[in-house]
């Protein structure tokens, strides 16, 4: 009886931990460099168990947010916790987070084997066997200097080192910027396998939308130092529709929050907040929206926002800013 | 039931023990073995030279210098080796600066310059622990190497001191001796580490290290060192050769007359025709009613001065390393 209860409790605890924990949580987070705010008033709760894509144009604050989350930078305002409540940069946080920085910095004069040994010495856990196996699979010779590897191999080595630490959160900053299409594919395949098999939560930033569409199930969009959109991809797609109708009526259309207006000849395309059940006005057609289209619309409307409310982590009424009109 | 709803921190974290310090030994060695090999090569080559010429010097002293004032000693010992010893004394002044510049400055500057700090500082070991372990390990190693080297240098120089050709307090000898030399090497390393953290680029950090070290060493030699302990005052003309005379002046009838340098003493020496006499200026002027005064540090204060210099250099190094750590801890990328 007792044992049974314990088992249940453990199971519940684990469930609780995995499902409801926020892998990254920020409140009023801001970072200023000189007089420029790279990030401001960022309140975000990324639940565990997702492959979260952080997208936005260059200079939107993606790298700043990730640096704050992994403890490389200290906030100017607000705070950030990770792995369900640990302060970013604390030993517990560092222990559970593996970070692959932009351009995958490695010690170029160290051999691949030495990089493995080094990383093993710097961490409590290190899965040497799996790391060696993965490198062998990739055909990366252990004796070669890290600086002599190709860009794709360096990225794979950095990822291998990160995953061998058995992290609970893998943070990747523009991991594929330097890679050719095949290397990108291989890289993402490794990330997705880790996410699926080992339950690693992933947060990766990119300014290339196309490469995220297939992999991300959580989306964070940033623009000009602010978080614009945050939510599960399925929920975001379900709560947005593209309405197509006569261009002349577009301005009158104000029943629902409009994110973005695109005019093409006689027709106007409106991205609106609406579910499939919402009524469509006469003369207009409703279509589901794709992730790339949705992302592009928000990128073009830096003033628009779709964020969960103060009580985090659940589906909540979406709010919006005032859309501006873009004519094509 | 509350246990089920508390935000869970996984059990493994509850007993989280940091990665053991000793793991940094291999990491530090692997990353800095080239710099350490450079230090070893520099000190090793100099040590071989000191050993080989030191044997000759000791032999020449043993055969020629009984007594040390003999002409044979002057020609066969001092005449033969004084120049090379004096050149070496000057060259060795650069050793701590080179250690600081080429072993100390790159430790953090290179990480910041190449971006690898983003790898190193996000590992489980922890950013400031990583820095502390590296800096302490490397600084202990270079200071110990310098201490061993300076013991050899003292042995090399010993015949010259014994023959009276080199006083222990000589500006270009004192800082090469045991405690002070280790202290200077340590301080140079710490200056390098902090410069690297502040400047974030290797080559400018090396330059800054050399400049700051040179300034500090000069200021110490020319001004600071003589104030470690209050100098003694004397009017006795027979000060031992080991004494370090800081200042000299003359009085007459209990009043200050003139300093030991300048136009006044030249006039006085001419007036009493001291220049043509066999006597030294103090002896001559004393005969004419002046009193010669000297403030000096006696040779017996050599070791207290060594420990004072080593002590403040150690304190300075600890301070510099603490400042470096503080910068690493609070540093915003």
Features:
heterodimer; A: about 325 residues; alpha/beta; Rossmann fold; 5-stranded mixed sheet; about 30% helix; disordered N terminus; disordered C terminus; B: about 325 residues; alpha+beta; 4-stranded antiparallel sheet; 14 helices; about 70% helix; elongated
Overview of this protein structure:
The complex is a heterodimer of chains A (328) and B (333). In chain A, the strands form three sheets. Chain A has a six-stranded mixed sheet, with helices on both faces. A five-stranded mixed sheet of chain A has the order 14-11-13-12-15. A four-stranded antiparallel sheet of chain A has the order 2-1-4-5, covered by helices on one side. Chain A has two domains: 22-233, P-loop containing nucleotide triphosphate hydrolases (Rossmann fold, 3-Layer(aba) Sandwich), CATH 3.40.50; 241-314 and 321-327, no CATH class. Chain A has helices spanning 2-20, 62-69, 91-96, 112-121, 128-138, 151-164, 181-198, 210-213, 233-238, 291-300, and strands at 22-33, 36-47, 51-55, 77-82, 86-87, 97-100, 169-173, 201-206, 218-223, 226-232, 240-246, 258-264, 267-273, 285-288, 326-327. Chain A has ten helices and 15 strands. The relative contact order of chain A is 0.13. In chain A, helix 5 runs antiparallel to helix 6 (151-164). By secondary structure, chain B is an alpha+beta fold. Chain B has two domains: 21-223 and 300-330, no CATH class; 244-297, no CATH class. Helices cover 68% and strands 7% of the residues of chain B. Chain B has helices at 2-5, 11-14, 23-64, 71-92, 94-104, 106-114, 117-120, 127-162, 171-174, 178-199, 202-224, 263-271, 281-287, 302-330, and strands at residues 232-234, 244-252, 255-259, 291-297. Chain B is elongated and about 80 Å long.
Low-confidence stretches of chain B: 1-12
Compute the average pLDDT of chain B. 91
Q: Largest interface, counted with CB-CB under 8 A?
A: A-B, 47 and 37 residues
- What structural category characterises the helix and strand content of chain A? alpha/beta
Q: What is the string of SSEs of chain B from the N terminus onward?
A: HHHHHHHHHHHEEEHHEH
What is the approximate shape of chain A?
Answer: elongated
Instruction: Please give the share of residues in helix of chain A.
Output: 25-40%
Beta-strand residue percentage of chain B: 5-15%
What count of helical segments of chain B does DSSP give?
A: 14
Q: Tell me, briefly, the overall form of chain B.
A: elongated
> How many domains in all of chain A?
2
Quaternary state of this entry equals: heterodimer
Helix content of chain B: 55-70%
Biggest sheet: strand arrangement of chain B: 1-4-2-3
In round numbers, the mean pLDDT of chain A is 84
CATH class of the largest domain in chain A: Alpha Beta
Indicate how many domains the architecture of chain B comprises.
Answer: 2
The N- and C-terminal alpha carbons of chain A lie at a distance of: 69 Å
- Strand composition percent of chain A: 25-35%
């Amino acid at each position: 009886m007792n044992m049974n209860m314990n088992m249940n409790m453990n199971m519940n605890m684990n469930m609780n931990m995995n499902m409801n924990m926020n892998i990254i949580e920020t409140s009023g987070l801001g970072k200023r460099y000189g007089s420029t705010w790279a990030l401001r008033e960022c309140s975000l709760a990324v639940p565990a168990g997702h492959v979260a894509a952080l997208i936005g144009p260059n200079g939107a604050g993606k790298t700043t947010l990730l640096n704050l989350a992994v403890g490389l930078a200290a906030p100017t305002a607000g705070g950030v916790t990770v792995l369900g409540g640990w302060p970013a940069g604390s030993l517990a946080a560092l222990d559970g987070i593996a970070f692959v920085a932009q351009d995958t910095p490695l010690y170029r004069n160290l051999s691949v084997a030495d990089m493995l040994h080094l990383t093993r010495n710097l961490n409590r856990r290190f899965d040497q066997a799996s790391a060696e196996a993965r490198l062998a699979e990739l055909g990366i010779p252990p004796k070669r200097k890290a600086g002599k590897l190709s860009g794709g191999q360096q990225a794979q080595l950095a990822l291998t080192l990160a995953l061998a630490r058995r992290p609970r959160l893998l943070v990747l900053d523009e991991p594929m910027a330097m890679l050719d299409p095949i290397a990108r594919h291989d890289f993402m395949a490794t990330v997705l396998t880790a996410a699926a098999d080992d339950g690693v939560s992933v947060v990766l930033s990119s300014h290339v939308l196309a490469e995220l569409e297939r992999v991300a199930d959580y989306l964070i969009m940033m623009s000009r130092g602010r978080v614009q959109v945050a939510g599960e991809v399925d929920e975001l797609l379900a709560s947005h529709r593209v309405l197509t109708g006569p261009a002349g009526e577009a301005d009158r259309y104000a029943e629902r929050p409009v994110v973005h207006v695109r005019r093409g000849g006689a027709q106007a395309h409106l991205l609106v907040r609406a579910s499939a059940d919402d009524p469509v006005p006469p003369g207009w057609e409703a279509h589901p929206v794709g992730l790339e289209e949705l992302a592009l619309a928000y990128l073009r409307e830096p003033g628009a926002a779709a964020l969960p409310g103060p009580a985090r982590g659940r589906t909540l009424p979406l709010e919006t800013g005032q859309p501006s009109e873009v004519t094509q | 039931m509350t246990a089920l709803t508390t935000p869970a921190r996984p059990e493994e974290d509850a007993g989280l023990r940091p990665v053991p310090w000793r793991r940094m030994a291999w990491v530090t060695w692997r990353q800095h073995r080239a710099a350490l090999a450079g230090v070893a090569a520099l000190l090793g080559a100099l040590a071989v030279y000191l050993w080989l010429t030191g044997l000759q010097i000791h032999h020449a002293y043993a055969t020629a210098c009984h007594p040390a004032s003999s002409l044979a000693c002057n020609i066969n010992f001092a005449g033969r080796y004084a120049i090379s010893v004096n050149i070496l004394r000057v060259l060795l002044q650069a050793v701590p600066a080179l250690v600081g510049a080429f072993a100390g400055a790159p430790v953090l500057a290179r990480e910041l310059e190449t971006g690898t700090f983003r790898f190193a500082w996000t590992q489980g070991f922890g950013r400031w622990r990583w820095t502390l372990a590296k800096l302490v390990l490397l600084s202990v190693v270079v200071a110990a190497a310098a201490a061993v080297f300076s013991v050899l240098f003292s042995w090399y120089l010993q015949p010259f001191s014994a023959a009276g050709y080199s006083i222990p307090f000589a500006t270009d000898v004192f800082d090469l001796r045991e405690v002070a030399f280790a202290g200077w090497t340590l301080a140079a390393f710490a200056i390098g580490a902090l410069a690297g953290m502040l400047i974030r680029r290797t080559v400018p950090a090396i330059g800054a290290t050399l400049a700051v070290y040179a300034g500090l060493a000069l200021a110490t030699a020319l001004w600071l060192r003589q104030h470690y302990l209050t100098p003694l005052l004397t009017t006795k003309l027979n000060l031992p050769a080991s004494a370090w005379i800081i200042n000299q002046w003359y009085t007459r009838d209990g009043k200050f007359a003139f300093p030991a340098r300048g136009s006044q003493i030249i006039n006085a020496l001419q007036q009493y025709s001291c220049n043509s006499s066999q006597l030294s200026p103090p002896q001559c002027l004393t005969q004419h009613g002046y009193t010669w005064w000297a403030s000096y540090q006696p040779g017996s204060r050599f070791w207290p001065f060594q420990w004072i210099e080593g002590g403040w250099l150690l304190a300075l190094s600890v301070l510099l390393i603490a400042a470096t750590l503080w910068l690493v801890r609070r540093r915003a990328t």
